[in-house]
Amino acid sequence: MTLTSRHIQAYLLLLPAFVFLVGFTHYPAVATLIDSVMSTPRGGRAPAFIGLENYQAMIQDPVFWKSAINNLWFALATIPASMALSIVMALWVNDQIAGRQFLRMSYFLPTVMPMIAVANIWIFFYTPDYGLINQVFQVLGFKSLNFLGNPDLALMSVTIVAIWKEAGFFMIFYLAALQTLSPSYREAAQIEGASRLYFFWRIQWPLLMPTTIFVLVNALINSVRMVDHIFVMTNGGPNNASSLLLFYLYEVGFKFWDRGYASTLTVVLLAILAIAGLVQFFLLDRRTHYR
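RE: above sequence
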């Protein structure tokens, strides 16, 4: 087989994957970028080039800014909280404790449950007067709260649900990373009399940095894309108090049928994720590989 024929054969083997990659990744991205500078077709009216009008409308849209701020607070709460909780759980179930397998299963169970089911479970917890949390409050002498109907509590309530579901998923990665560490590190630390906290902070934590970068990037993506429970629990309300960017994008695209504006929101959302991901990677890459 000549060199040229081997190259042709290699490209033919890659062709199916390349078609799917272009068809489901690159083409939609380019089409979305084009649609963001076009008007939305209405009836028999074809889309027309309108330049940056959709972006100008976005800047002047108060609901967009409300959703963006909500998403910022949602990310700032869910990312560090879910990561910290997952590390604590991983450290605990990595030790030789009684019922370790049951604990691992219990922590991971929320991850495998559909988000719709999780949302319905937490609706029962949050129900005014009759919900589990409010019943505990009443026993302790506190008044019942409307967690999902109060604009001051709605975003916090859905954030807690996201943290509860995400922590078990990230725990699996940290647990796998901890089990790859040599036992000699712990033995040497015990001989030197190092405390568990010192051993974690000086030895385990630096060695977990590659896993932390992976988890951090995934947590960032999840903080933007995980809106299933918003649909079920609050539908973005009350008064957009729990509306996130992806939920607002869905409303614009599939409720208001404004394809041009929805494409603009998509471009901005992807740009934010790309910039945040690149910043995370380049800032933490040097520390991770100790260059």
